[in-house]
Amino acid sequence: MSLESLKEHIPDYAKDIRLNLSSLARETGLDDQKKYGCFLASAWATGNAALIRAIAGEVDGKLSPEAVNAAKAAAAVMGMNNVYYRFVHLASAKDYKTLPARLRMNVIANPGVDKADFELWSLAVSAINGCGMCIDAHEAELKKHGISADQIQTAVRIASVVNAAASVIEAETAAAA
Q1: Is-catalytic flag, 131?
Q2: Of 131, 156, 158, 159, which residue is the catalytic one?
Q3: Which cysteines are joined by disulfide bonds (predicted)?
């Protein structure tokens, strides 16, 4: 499966999602590893099986096995961190801000790919999961690595469109059941 075959399953009422998938796949503001890693990490973060298969098919041959693993790892570790740090941020009690997380997140220090790529994928997943604290932390790291605001915005655009595609697919599947 690929993005083209996935777009065939997105109905006309969501035509904008199809068009955005196409334009983002042609995006040149990010190199292929950053771009396709964002697509894959975002798909993995949604948990939508059809979307994951389509995007995995699309990135096949465009990402190294190490990059595929790192994109999945970004989705996995951010799935944990986004919940924890969103809680820390939203909790009224300030005690939690001073306590160590005590969660293993070794992959962040050694993701197996360029640190900036992993941070970008982590930011995309954090945007999907709605963790402002993680968004701020990853954006600051990306700026230190020389990633521009346009590139960061592109990653979040990919995340938003992939997330919307997952929502449409889920709704259509539910309606057909």
Answers
A1: yes
A2: 131
A3: 131-134
Round to whole Å and give the CA distance between 91 and 94.
Answer: 7
Residue from 24, 78, 134, 169 carrying the catalytic annotation:
134
pLDDT above 90: residue 5? no
Contacts 24+ apart (CB under 8 A), 50-55: 50/1, 50/6, 50/9, 50/169, 50/173, 51/6, 51/162, 51/165, 51/166, 51/169, 53/1, 54/1, 54/2, 54/3, 54/5, 54/6, 55/3, 55/6, 55/162
- Does the pTM exceed 0.90? yes
Q: At residue 104, what are phi and psi to the nearest 5 degrees?
A: -75, 130
DSSP code at position 14:
G
In the numeric block, which tokens belong to residue 71?
A: 């994109």
Assign 3-class secondary structure to 47-101. CCHHHHHHHHHHHECCECHHHHHHHHHHHHHHHHHHHHHHHHHHCCCCHHHHCCC
Crossing angle between the packed helical segments 115-129 and 132-144, to the nearest 10 degrees: 160
Biggest CA–CA distance in the chain, Å, is 50
d(CA 28, CA 14): 24
Say whether 134 is catalytic. yes
Q: Which domains are seen in the chain, by residue range?
A: 3-176 (1.20.1290.10)
pLDDT over 90 for what percent of the chain? 94
